[in-house]
Amino acid sequence: MSNYFNMVKHVLMIKGCKFNENKAYQQTSEILAVSNTSKVPAMTTATGVHLTETTVILDYLEKPIQHRRYVPL
Predict the structure, then answer these.
(1) I want to staple 45 with a disulfide (CB 3.0 to 4.6 A). Which of 12, 14, 35, 49 is the partner?
(2) What is the DSSP code string of the chain?
(3) Tens digit of each residue's pLDDT (9 = 90 or more) over 22-61
(4) Which residue ranges make up each domain of the chain?
(5) What region does 18 belong to: left with phi over 0, alpha with psi -120 to 50, or beta?
(6) In sequence order, which residues have a C-beta less than 8 Å from that of residue 3 and are 6 or more positions away?
(7) pLDDT number for residue 9
(8) Please, what's the b/e burial string for 9-18 (b: 16 or more CB within 10 A of its CB; e: otherwise)?
(9) For residue 64, what pLDDT is reported?
């Protein structure tokens, strides 16, 4: 995968989040349903919102789980 994918994966692991890792190397209808540009990483939140930019995903992860911060204060 990419360094961007790894950044998100490591933050999820550091924060102790449960997640499913789906590896796909081709554009499929499932990938395009989440990321219309087929960018990686991409994630779907518990409420069904699709996020595709690394910084957006990391910002999203930082807010609700602040007891394990990855960004210094």
Answers:
(1) 49
(2) --HHHHHHHHHHHHTT---------S--HHHHHH-TT--SS-EE-TTS-EE-SHHHHHHHHHTT-TTS-SS--
(3) 776 667 777 777 776 767 788 888 888 889 889 999 988 8
(4) 3-62
(5) beta
(6) none
(7) 92
(8) eebbeebeee
(9) 66
Cβ atoms within 10 Å, residue 32: 11
Residue with tokens 């990321």: 35
pTM exceeds 0.85 = no
CATH C-level class of 3-62: alpha beta
Amino acid letter, residue 6? N
The Cα–Cα gap between 11 and 30 comes to 24
**Position of tokens 């360094």?**
3
Supply 21's token pair: 């890792």
Cα–Cα distances in angstroms (integers) from residue 53 to residues 3, 25, 67, 73, in the given order: 13, 18, 23, 23
